[in-house]
From TrEMBL:
This is ABC transporter ATP-binding protein. GO terms for molecular function: ATP binding; ATP hydrolysis activity. Transmembrane segments: none annotated. The lineage of its organism: Bacteria, Bacillati, Actinomycetota, Actinomycetes, Propionibacteriales. InterPro entries: AAA+_ATPase (IPR003593), ABC_transporter-like_ATP-bd (IPR003439), ABC_transporter-like_CS (IPR017871), ABC_transporter_ATP-bind (IPR050166), P-loop_NTPase (IPR027417). PANTHER family: ALIPHATIC SULFONATES IMPORT ATP-BINDING PROTEIN SSUB, TAURINE IMPORT ATP-BINDING PROTEIN-RELATED. It comes from Nocardioides marmoriginsengisoli. Keywords: ATP-binding, Nucleotide-binding, Transport. Residues 11-246 form the ABC transporter domain.
Length: 276
């Protein structure tokens, strides 16, 4: 398993808005004045209703989209284009159909500029990751020979193969069954704590957000914005038992309230605070 500690990176989203130009219509404001600081090594979840701008924000952090206003920085670098040390997992797998499963997982290592990994090592790493996502024995297959959920697990393995500092995940487990999803949640936490990556994780699922994250940014819509940022006071390491604790249910309840009222909840002070 690739568990070497990677360099730590902080991410600063500063007053970011995004409008999309739509032919014959007024520009559409998808995200308004979002600001948040993501600490090095933090696990941040973004939750909110469909269309509130979660993917838009993630894509801007990834350098795939440019903000209309505001700036995003990683350490002392402004993000203006895709970053080599960021890995992204999209909602759909996006595998190369003409490459085998193993070759797809190895791809980031083959493309890595200046950091050549010997082929045998790349292969061994990819094989370990396929084992991690329970696809050992499928390395020689082509993506079209796997189910949708299996393809998504391949894309998760691919995102973990290099030692990217920052992992951006856009509802990566949305299409998986509940058992696989919960198991991968636990594996992801294990990998995160072993490697010190910064993770920003988009999900619709509040249980998943609470289980995984240090903090959850709750987003609202019309216009898309960050409504509140909630600390999750759930002890680590987290496991299946964490899902039945008072702290877990309390945090889920708080997120639900914030989502339904569209304003930050300050239940007794600790735990919730406004987005900066
Ligand atoms: N390229 C684009 N052109 C025009 N509008 C866009 C574009 N991309 C996104 N939007 C709009 O911006 C808004 C936010 O979209 P986004 O995909 O970020 O939402 P989301 O919160 O990730 O939604 P979901 O949870 O359904 O994936 C939506 O209303 C969407 O229609």
């Amino acid at each position: 398993m690739t568990t070497a500690t990677v360099a730590r990176a902080s991410i600063s989203v500063r007053g970011v808005s995004k409008s999309f130009e739509i032919p014959r219509e007024a520009p559409f404001l998808a995200l308004k004045e979002a600001s948040i600081e993501v600490e090095p090594g933090e696990f941040l979840a973004l939750v909110g209703p469909s269309g509130c701008g979660k993917s838009t924000l993630l894509r801007m952090i990834a350098g795939l989209l440019k903000p209309t206003e505001g700036e995003i920085w990683v350490g002392d670098r402004q993000i203006t284009r895709p970053q080599e040390d960021f890995s992204i997992v999209f909602q759909s797998p996006r595998l190369l159909p003409w490459k085998t499963v193993l070759e797809n997982v190895m791809l980031p290592l083959a493309l890595g500029r200046g950091k050549k990994v010997p082929k045998a090592e790349a292969k061994a790493r990819a094989q370990e990751l396929l084992e991690l996502v329970q696809l050992e024995g499928f390395g020689g297959r082509f993506p079209s020979e796997l189910s949708g959920g299996m393809q998504q697990r391949v894309s998760i393995a691919r995102s973990l193969v290099n030692s990217a500092n920052v992992l951006l995940m856009d509802e990566p487990f949305g299409a998986l069954d509940a058992f696989t999803r919960e198991r991968l949640n636990e594996e992801l936490l294990r990998i995160w704590s072993a490697t010190g990556r910064t993770i920003i994780f988009v999900t619709h699922d509040m249980d998943e957000a609470v289980f995984l994250a240090d903090r959850v940014a709750v987003m609202g819509k019309e216009p898309g914005r960050i409504v509140d940022v909630v600390d999750i006071p759930l002890a680590r390491p987290r496991n299946a038992e964490s899902r039945t604790s008072e702290e877990f249910f309390g945090s889920v309840r708080r997120l639900r309230q914030t989502l339904s009222t569209g304003v930050g909840v300050d239940a007794g002070g600790a735990g919730a605070h406004r987005a900066e």
